[in-house]
Amino acid sequence: MSEKTVVAPKPHVAHEVHHEELGFWRKYVFSTDHKVIGIQYAVTGLLFLLFGFSLMMLMRWQLAYPGVPLPLIGQLFGEARMPGGTMLPEFYNELGAMHGTIMVFLGVVPLAVGGFGNFVLPLQIGAPDMAFPKINMVSYWCLFLGGITMLGSFLVPGGAAQSGWTSYAPLSVIAGTGQTWWLIGMIFLITSSLLGALNFITTTIQLRAKGLTFMRFPFFCWSQFVTAFLLLLAFPPLEAAGVMQLMDRVAGTSFFLPSGLVVSGQALANTGGGNPLLWQHLFWFLAHPEVYVLILPGMGIVAEIIANNTRKPLWGYRSMVYSLVFLGFMSFIVWAHHMFMTGMGTTMAAFFQTTTMIISIPSVVILTALIISLWGGSIRYNTPMLFAVAFLPMFGIGGLTGLPLGLNIADIPLHDTYYVIAHFHYVVAPGTIFALMAGIYYWYPKATGRKMNETLGKIHFAGSLICMNVIFMPMFIIGLAGVSRRLFDAGTAYAFAQPTMHWNAVSSWGAWTLALFQIPFIFNFFWSIKKGAVADENPWQATTIEWSAPSPPPHGNFAQVPQAYRGPYEYSVPGAGKDFVPQFEA
Amino acid sequence: MDIPYTVEIRRDTGLTNGKIGIWLFLASEVMLFGALFASYILIRVGAPSWPRGDMFLDVPLATVNTIVLIASSVTMVMAWASLMRRRFQTYRIYMGLTILAGLVFLVIKYFEYSHHFHGGELPSTNNFLAIYFTLTGLHGLHVFGGMVVNAYFWGPGAKLWKTNPVWFTNRVEHSGLFWHFVDLVWIFLFPTLYLL
Q: CA of A231: which chain B residue's CA is closest?
């Protein structure tokens, strides 16, 4: 596998040459090549992750030391936001709402789906590109416009959206101009996701290599396939809700405004008669499947890396796939477990609590299968594997602490406390983001032709793992004490919050240290482009089809049209000469 | 580099890429309008009183519009069928009629809207008008979008007929699927808003 493949001349030589001669703009900026678009998505996602993380680091100062002026940089934010360096509640709300929005819609999803999906999926199924390359490009630029709109909203009078990433009505309807920008930004992001999703599904169904049946798919392909369906079908209701909220704000309608609403002592001019809960239903109808959009690609990446580095087939591949599909279906009928506190009847609560308990089963099946896959393997602990293995307990903590929230009775004391924050951040931060980091270290050689530095990678990993737990574990304690997540002063005014106040500082120092531990990663990311160890096309001795393409793959990806001859994880086959039998070798 | 199955059918799925793409797109559109219809039901059920459509809206005008749109669906099919029979000039006529029908629909819609606005009936007047303007406005945008695509295939996009007639016919078929969907939405909108 290590010999360099010479690109064989193809029938469409003239066509190929034409593509190679594209200018800078068409080649790197307005490219229709899925690999370039994937990298654009990934870099955009990483930048937004860093930006969203920075917003959070500001908030963490306020939570650790409420009312204390922020040293050094506090003055930079102006009198309107931080007079004398002390954070105003409005600014805190702005940071909170935009942290959530940016991390979910502009950070994790673009990286997990746009980045990895675009770069890896066509390679893994042996396709020359996505089914609709131009739509793919439009999809990225919609995301870009959405991102610009979101960033721009910080500059409008009154600042960015302040009504939380959930934008609950009626608060969001009566909020400042930033909310309108948020809605317009969301419409761009939704359009981007829709175009991406239909492209992914079509590509997966149509452009599979010969012999690559669905049950021969690498688990990552399955995860992207199911994720794309979630994006395709769950996002439009939020678009509808966004349009209605926009109408409420711009045209003076009352979709989400109840009758007799009084704001600052004055009755609102709107006719009323709307339903604030309607927004919540529509929002969570998207946002619960969205939770699985955040986690499924992560599971897919981890499955690839675990199979590769244990040198064993995945344990229970079929049950994992069935669980994944079942998870996708179920994710559409659990949304109201976010709304137990809205006064819904016990019948409704019982229904959603039951579906929520049922949906935990396939997640546990997948997690268990991944853990059992480790059993008896001769594990290689390289950086991708470390992140992938750490994903398992971290996601496990996040998932299991979600069960009490899914039960109606247990949710009553826990709802809207720091416990909820700790729960979903364990799923998404040390869960999904660790999986995404694992994926970056794993597929970096495919994208650049060089490996990332292992020592720096291990420093990045160890530091991140410790810091993530230092940040989020205290939040369980704070949350169980009953402290609300919405308090801009961390509960200074409340007696019951006092015994756990000091944990906020621990958590904050964890967050700032986590930032320091990202420096080795950022350095490594750029340094390795030129200086990393040269990688051949299959540096991890992996079995899936993307490793048959040159590193980095040229336009059109494969020198010969690939074909799948067997299942995706034929590692350590008894009697085979080497410990892996690639899918693409006859 | 050419993307496989753009024109030719993949044997094991029996489909071209575009066919799957347009159906997936329509699936997401169903979710978009479905959410709006669901919102309509929820707000109407929660309202103490709800006006009958003809108290605010012009039913005869909307009936004309319904007929116009259904007719445009027929001409759209005829446009595609003409291409299947390799009669390009007939295609041009039918496609032109389809675009024209879309235009007639929007012009009638414009008169309805301006009548409302002059009478002081705005989206903010009551929740019935709010949902009426939101649903028909979004539907109108879809009609406009469909017309833009159809106009492209009538005009500059038709050059593809000379080089790759199969591909062009497929594209017109996909555009037609979208156009039928837009009609179908109106078939639901008309009774929901005007008659109930």
A: B28
Using a CB-CB cut-off of 8 Å, the residues of chain A touching B24 are: 197-198, 201-202, 232
Residue B2 lies in a domain: no
- Is there a domain that residue B155 lies in? yes
- Residue A8: the pLDDT is 43
Among candidates A194, A251, A273 on the partner chain, residue whose Cβ is nearest the Cβ of B28: A194
Q: What is the CATH number of the domain that holds B104?
A: 1.20.120.80
- Residue A329 confidence (pLDDT): 96
> What b-and-e string marks burial along A287-317, b requiring 16 or more CB atoms within 10 Å of the CB?
bbbbbbbbbbbbbbbbbbbbbbbbbbbbbbb
Q: Provide long-range contacts, Cβ within 8 A and 24+ apart, for A526-531.
A: A527/A453, A528/A444, A528/A448, A528/A450, A528/A451, A528/A452, A528/A453, A529/A448, A529/A450, A530/A450, A531/A450
Which among B32, B34, B130 has CB closest to A255? B130
Cβ contact B32–A201 (<8 Å) = no
Q: What is the SS3 string spanning A117-182?
A: HHHHHHHHCCCCCCCCHHHHHHHHHHHHHHHHHHHHHHHCCCCECCCCCCCCCCCCCCCCHHHHHH
Does the beta-carbon distance from B21 to A202 stay under 8 Å? yes
The segments of chain A whose pLDDT lies below 70 read: 1-21
Specify the number of domains making up chain B. 1
User: Does B6 map to a domain?
Assistant: no
Q: Does A282 touch chain B (CB under 8 A)?
A: yes
**A71-108 pLDDT per residue, tens:** 989 989 999 999 999 999 999 999 999 999 999 999 99
Residue B25 lies in a domain: yes
User: Contact B127/A271, CB-based, under 8 Å?
Assistant: yes
The identity of residue A543, as a single letter, is T
| Domains identified in chain A and CATH numbers | 24-253+274-548 (1.20.210.10)
Query: Does residue A72 belong to the interface with chain B, where contact is any CB pair within 8 Å?
Result: no
B157-175 pLDDT, tens digit each: 999 999 999 999 999 999 9
pLDDT for the residue numbered B1: 66
Summarize pLDDT for B108-148 with one digit per residue, the tens.
Answer: 999 999 999 999 999 999 999 999 999 999 999 999 999 99
Residue A554: closest C-alpha in chain B = B1
Q: Give the whole-angstrom CA distance, residue B66 versus residue B72.
A: 10
**Using one digit for the tens of pLDDT, what is the confidence trace for A242-274?**
999 999 999 999 999 999 899 889 888 888 899
Of A130, A131, A247, the CB nearest to B123: A247
C-beta atoms of B4 and A206 within 8 A = yes
Tell me the three-class secondary structure of A188-246, residue by residue.
Answer: HHHHHHHHHHHHHHHHHHHCCCECCCHHHCCHHHHHHHHHHHHHHHHHHHHHHHHHHHH
pLDDT attached to residue A115? 97
